[in-house]
């Protein structure tokens, strides 16, 4: 009866009483308390610019869904949530996301489980529970979604894009490729880009990122293909400032889903496998690091923190290893500091 006894007597008295009786205290924490602490922690991360506001919204969605499940099952205490509870949640959630009128499919359940794994991991760190009951689902692929294209794949992309584009054609279907190649935009930012954000005379793009609302200023490199492609597209359409840059042959704006389909089709034609728009973000990060040798500059171009860029977009791929080796071989090293006496 300790649950009933604890709230009605002073905590110090209860502690002495439990020690005298030889009863080990069992912490009982309500789900509502965990949610309050977790949300406060994430909101602080947003204020410190350590977390994107959109990510916090995604957590809210998962928390609301899981709370609806707990209410239906009449569960309120964290200690009552175990592996069996999560199995029930998977079945309950699957029934929802597989309905014909559902807006999302299997990835919705995966994201919910990953978020819940983080939530209950936070509970473990705060000693509200002893063990995380949520097992995060495995990655659906053996590589990170933003894994950069190799130098050989980039050359294959570019060679085919130049050869495949018909010069007298009024529509350049390779514009999405060149835009992703030389901006590293996330898919949402690529399809949202408007012409008022493209300054062709100044050779720069100024865009506020959808995910974290950071404004980035990207140079349009004169010697690369993006500039002539944008100029040709602008001259063909004479668009208004608020019109989108990426459109299909019929003049309809590209959605995120359409962009994925377009890039997969272009990759198939170019002979490049495992194509998704996020891989261009990692490729752009590696490209700019090799050119600038400045991770702070690269983070500003991507509109992210240095830690996020290093963790997600710049794995130590072969191209970076070779770049490091070249710099070390060309460097003078300690010999430049040898004193005249020792010489």
Describe the structure.
The longest helix is centred in the N-terminal third of the chain and has 21 residues, at 53-73. The protein is mainly alpha-helical. The protein is built from 15 helices and three strands. A three-stranded antiparallel sheet has the order 1-2-3. The termini are far apart.
CA radius of gyration: 27 Å
- Strand/helix succession: HHHHHHHHHEEEHHHHHH
Structural category? mainly alpha
As for the number of domains, it is 2
Large-scale geometry: globular
Estimate the helix proportion, in percent: 40-55%
Low-confidence stretches: 100-107
Mean pLDDT: 85
Largest pleated sheet: 3 strands, antiparallel
- CATH topology label of the largest domain: hpI Integrase, Chain A
Share of β-strand residues: under 5%
- In total, the number of strands is 3
The CATH architecture assignment of the largest domain turns out to be Orthogonal Bundle
Distance between the termini: 84 Å
What is the overall number of helices? 15
Write the CATH homologous superfamily of the largest domain: Intergrase catalytic core
Topology, please?
Blueprint: H1 2-5, H2 11-21, H3 31-47, H4 53-73, H5 83-97, H6 106-125, H7 151-164, H8 175-181, H9 187-192, E1 198-199, E2 204-208, E3 215-219, H10 226-237, H11 256-270, H12 278-292, H13 295-302, H14 306-313, H15 318-330
Antiparallel strand pairs: 1-2, 2-3
Summed up:
The protein has helices at residues 2-5, 11-21, 31-47, 53-73, 83-97, 106-125, 151-164, 175-181, 187-192, 226-237, 256-270, 278-292, 295-302, 306-313, 318-330; strands at 198-199, 204-208, 215-219. The protein is mainly alpha-helical and 343 residues long. It has a 3-stranded antiparallel β-sheet.
């Amino acid at each position: 009866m300790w649950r009933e006894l604890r709230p009605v007597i002073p905590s110090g008295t209860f502690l002495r009483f439990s020690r005298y009786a030889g009863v080990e205290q069992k912490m009982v924490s309500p789900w509502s308390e965990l949610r309050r602490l977790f949300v406060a922690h994430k909101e602080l991360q947003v204020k410190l610019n350590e977390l994107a506001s959109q990510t916090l919204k995604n957590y809210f969605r998962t928390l609301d869904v899981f709370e609806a499940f707990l209410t239906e099952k009449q569960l309120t205490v964290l200690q009552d949530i175990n592996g069996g509870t999560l199995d029930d949640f998977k079945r309950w959630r699957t029934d929802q996301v597989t309905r014909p009128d559902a807006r999302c499919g299997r990835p919705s359940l995966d994201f919910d489980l990953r978020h819940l794994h983080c939530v209950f991991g936070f509970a473990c760190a705060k000693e509200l529970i002893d063990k995380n009951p949520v097992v995060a689902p495995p990655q659906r692929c053996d590589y990170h979604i933003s894994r950069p294209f190799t130098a050989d794949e980039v050359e294959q992309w570019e060679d085919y894009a130049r050869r495949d584009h018909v010069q007298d054609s009024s529509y350049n279907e390779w514009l999405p490729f060149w835009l992703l190649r030389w901006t590293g935009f996330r898919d949402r930012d690529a399809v949202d880009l408007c012409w008022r954000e493209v300054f062709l005379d100044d050779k720069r793009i100024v865009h506020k990122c959808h995910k974290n609302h950071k404004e980035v200023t990207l140079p349009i490199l004169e010697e690369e293909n993006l500039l002539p492609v944008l100029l040709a597209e602008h001259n063909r359409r004479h668009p208004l400032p608020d019109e989108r840059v990426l459109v299909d042959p019929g003049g309809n704006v590209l959605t995120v889903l359409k962009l994925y389909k377009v890039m997969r089709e272009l990759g198939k034609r170019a002979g490049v496998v495992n194509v998704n728009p996020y891989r261009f973000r990692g490729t752009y990060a590696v490209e700019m690091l090799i050119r600038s040798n400045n991770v702070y500059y690269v983070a500003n171009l991507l509109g992210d923190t240095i830690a996020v860029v290093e963790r997600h977009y710049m794995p130590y791929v072969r191209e970076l290893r070779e770049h490091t080796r070249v710099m070390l071989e060309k460097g003078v090293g300690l010999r430049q500091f040898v004193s005249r006496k020792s010489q």
